[in-house]
């Protein structure tokens, strides 16, 4: 399942989310929205109005931000989502 993560440079939450995805061996598409209002607007629309980064998607499913995916992982629910 394709994973997409919207990020900005120097964002500690983005780095933490990327570290978790890397630790899971997940291939993902990182979209840097810094200075790109069209990509930021796309992220806000896809996430149902969330304006903060990161925003993470597995396919069309919105997983949320950094805290959300760490919570999914703690409940043992992240791996099944990432593995389709």
From TrEMBL:
<dbReference type="InterPro" id="IPR002109">
    <property type="entry name" value="Glutaredoxin"/>
</dbReference>
<dbReference type="GO" id="GO:0034599">
    <property type="term" value="P:cellular response to oxidative stress"/>
</dbReference>
<dbReference type="InterPro" id="IPR011900">
    <property type="entry name" value="GRX_bact"/>
</dbReference>
<protein>
    <recommendedName>
        <fullName>Glutaredoxin</fullName>
    </recommendedName>
</protein>
<comment type="similarity">
    <text>Belongs to the glutaredoxin family.</text>
</comment>
<dbReference type="InterPro" id="IPR014025">
    <property type="entry name" value="Glutaredoxin_subgr"/>
</dbReference>
<dbReference type="InterPro" id="IPR036249">
    <property type="entry name" value="Thioredoxin-like_sf"/>
</dbReference>
<dbReference type="InterPro" id="IPR011767">
    <property type="entry name" value="GLR_AS"/>
</dbReference>
<comment type="function">
    <text>Has a glutathione-disulfide oxidoreductase activity in the presence of NADPH and glutathione reductase. Reduces low molecular weight disulfides and proteins.</text>
</comment>
<keyword id="KW-1015">Disulfide bond</keyword>
<dbReference type="Pfam" id="PF00462">
    <property type="entry name" value="Glutaredoxin"/>
</dbReference>
<dbReference type="GO" id="GO:0045454">
    <property type="term" value="P:cell redox homeostasis"/>
</dbReference>
<dbReference type="GO" id="GO:0015038">
    <property type="term" value="F:glutathione disulfide oxidoreductase activity"/>
</dbReference>
<keyword id="KW-0963">Cytoplasm</keyword>
<keyword id="KW-0676">Redox-active center</keyword>
<feature type="domain" description="Glutaredoxin">
    <location>
        <begin position="3"/>
        <end position="62"/>
    </location>
</feature>
<dbReference type="GO" id="GO:0005737">
    <property type="term" value="C:cytoplasm"/>
</dbReference>
<keyword id="KW-0249">Electron transport</keyword>
<keyword id="KW-0813">Transport</keyword>
């Amino acid at each position: 399942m394709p994973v997409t993560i919207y990020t900005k440079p120097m964002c500690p939450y983005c780095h933490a989310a990327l570290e978790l995805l890397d630790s899971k061996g997940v291939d993902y598409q990182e979209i840097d929205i810094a200075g790109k209002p069209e990509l930021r607007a796309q992220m806000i629309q896809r996430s149902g109005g969330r304006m903060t980064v990161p925003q993470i998607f597995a396919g069309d499913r919105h997983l949320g931000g950094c805290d959300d995916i760490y919570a999914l992982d703690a409940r043992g629910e992240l791996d099944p989502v990432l593995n389709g």
